[in-house]
Structures are given as C-alpha cells and as structure tokens.
Amino acid sequence: MNWLVKSFYLIFIFPAVIALTFTVSARPSDSAQDAWPVTQRCLGLPVEAPDAPFPGMLVTVADDAVRAYREGVPTTYVLAFAGGNFLRGASVSPDGQLIAVPNGVITAVTSSDVRYSVQEIRIVTTETVPRIAVRIPWRASFPMGSLFTSTGDIPTVQWLDSERFLFVEGLASEEQRWVVVRPFDAGAQPETAAVQDALTRSPDGSRTVAVRSSERALIDAASGQTLVGLPASADVSRAQWTPDSSTLAISYREGGVERLTLMDTASGARSDVFVFEPYQKARSVRWSPDGARLAFTVFDPQTGMNRLHIADRAAHAVSDLCVDLEIAGSEPFTSSVVWSPDGKSLAMTTAQAVPNAVISIADVETGRRWTLLPASGELSGWYD
User: Fold this and answer.
1) Residues of the domain holding 340
2) What predicted TM-score, i.e. pTM, was given to this entire model?
3) pLDDT 10s digits, 223-232
4) Which of 317, 380, 384, 338 has its CA nearest to residue 36?
5) Total structural domains in the chain?
C-alpha cells in the first residue's frame, strides 16, 4: 500500500529564506490509493525581488482591458480596451507577438434577446506601443446563452500557429461554421475547418476534443473520425494538452469524487494523478512548456481555498505548494497560474498574506517567491 508523505516547513527570513523540513507519514484514504502520492513543499514567504530584469511578457485579462507587462516598463500597458472589443474572445499568438481581438457591438433586441455581433477582427502587436497590424472585416453574431456563449460572451480565437487562427463565421439566424483565417495573406479566403464541433485542439492540430451524441471523445482533426473515447463525466471544457500533443490532462467524476487524470492520446491509457475530496474541484490546470510538470489548483467551495499543486510526471508525485490562489472566473481561457517560457518559474495571482491580490513569481526548484506587481485581472499567458 502506498503512503502519503506530508512535509511541514518552518520558514525564517534572516538574512535569507531557510526551510526546515519535518516529515511524517499518513495512510491515504481508500479512494486515493491509485493516485500519485502528495508531499507538501511549501513556497517561501515573499522576499525582495531579484535584480535581474523580468524575463519575457506576462498578459492579463480583466473586464476593462487586456494588459501586458514586460521588462523596461514601470507597470502594465494596455493591449486592448473594453467597449467595442470582446476581450474574452481575444487570444495571444503562440509566439507572443500578436493578439487577435474580435470587435463589434452588443444589441439588446428585448430584455431576453441580447446579441453579440462581431464586425471586425483586429490583429494587434504586443510591443510596448501596440499598433493594429491588420483589420479583418467579419460577419458573425451570437445570442447570449447560445452554444458559443455559455459564459455570456463569444467564442475565443484559437491560434493554430503564429500565421493562422480559427474563429466562427455566420449570423445566429443562419448556419455558422469554424473557419481557418490567414490574417497576413491578403488573397486568402477563410477555409472551413475539418472538425466543427471541436472544444479544444491539440497544439500540433492533429486532434481535437468534442462531444458527439452526448459522448466525449478525441477526434482526428483531418478526417473527423473518433479516435479514443473519454470518460462520460469528463470536464472537456478544461482539458489541457501537453505541448507535444501526446498527453491530455482532464478531470472526471467517478464514485462521487473528481479525479485529475493524464491520458495518452494515442492509446487512450489513463493514469490518475490526484483524487479530490467529494466537494473539491480541479481549477487552473496548466502544463509546463516541456510537458514534464502539471500545475493545478484544488478548489474547495466550502472554504473558498484554491490551493496550488504541481504534478511531476517523471517522479509520479504531486507537490502541495501551500499557497492559496485567486479564482479565475473565465477558465480555461484564463488562469490563476501560468508557467514561464523556460519552465523554471510560475506566475500566480494571490491575496495570501497581503491586503489586495498581487501577481507573485515563484522559482519552482528553490521555492523562492517575490511580488511582481498588483494583480490586474486573470492570467492569460507568459511569453518570450
């Protein structure tokens, strides 16, 4: 029988962070015996920020604006304001150089008939003085509460690579379709995507997750054929692919509890990483850039705690980092935690031990943590 190892940390700051670890063992519950063992590896208390410049660009999404932060600027700067821009539909390209922003109007026909009309997609640069690089005329509308607006907004732009993205075309009163758009090819017309019911696509574009006849499955993106079935209770909206598209992290319910599992996308083989208490849920699931580690939070609606964990695939073990994060309301498009491009650090939004929420940066190996700046929305991504 496996044992659950718990480590307790005493943290002192003078003149540096020193972690003293005391280890005890406890027998796991029967429902968690097939999951990976959990160890507490608490992050240190916030210390002074390093002298080195901030590496890369951090992007946040709030109700009023999409903002970015990078070395060389004293605070965040705006990539897109609210108003005519549908910020929850905006998305940054994989290389971090561009952001695609749907733009249009909201029309209230009646109190129960509110429609989002996209009239243009703007491709904006993410440099410190952003500029609109391309304007793409568009024709699409989405009634509130429709297939695409379960969160009260519009579909999110899905980048296939830094030259192509997917978005929905067509009015709500007619047939709508996902199309492939090449914003920098002036002569190219949108092409109908092979799979129209995809909820999330693999980074290499070969597979998608879809729900067909109430059954959840992995779909071949080229042929539309079903490859592997998913658990009937799988939360497909939060499924997360490894960067190499080989593994899917997905949560599902079995025996009255939620489980976070890793599934091989070729064979369908699954390995449960974490088994939650009956009232707990998985939130903010994010892979490291090399696919070796998975960050996720354990959300407890009874206490409001949203505790950060990391699963290590090589060690088949989970670390509890003892940090309570803010709750991202627009998952899976935003998160409470994101990885640095080199996979060595985490950015997180937390109000633990501070009066107002901040963005903290933590070194995953050393546990050293410092405050970057006040939080201005939910985290979207960290780019080179």
Assistant:
1) 44-61+283-384
2) 0.88
3) 889 999 999 9
4) 317
5) 3
